[in-house]
Amino acid sequence: MVGDEFSDTELMQYLGATKRNMLGNHFWEYCVNDPPRVVLNKLEARGYRVVSMTGVGQTLVWCLHKE
Predict the structure, then answer these.
(1) Phi, psi angle pair for 43, to nearest 5°
(2) 18 DSSP β-pair partners
(3) Which GO terms describe its cellular component (predicted)?
């Protein structure tokens, strides 16, 4: 997952993300099929950098900041 319904649509298109609504959720999300390394490299090319990363259960979460 790379974004929610309020994310920058141009950036989501650049990442190759598709918008979906999972059954039971009351919100939309953008998802990609690329591995995290590819997504992070694309975001770095757009001026983002990783500030922190953590694991939540079996999920990895990255926090980024745009320069």
Answers:
(1) -65, -35
(2) 31
(3) cytoplasm; cytosol; dendrite; melanosome; nuclear membrane; nucleoplasm; nucleus
Which residues lie across from 66 on neighbouring strands? Answer: 48
Query: Which structural domain, as residue segments, surrounds residue 14?
Result: 9-66
pTM of the model: 0.86
pLDDT at residue 67 above 90? no
Dihedral angle, C-alpha 22, 59, 56, 39, nearest 10 °: -100
Q: How many CB atoms lie within 10 A of CB 13?
A: 11
Question: Each residue of 7-66: pLDDT tens digit?
Answer: 999 999 999 999 999 899 899 999 999 999 999 999 999 999 999 999 999 999 999 999
Amino acid (1-letter code) at residue 18: T
What domain count does the chain have?
1
Q: Are 40 and 62 in contact (CB under 8 A)?
A: yes
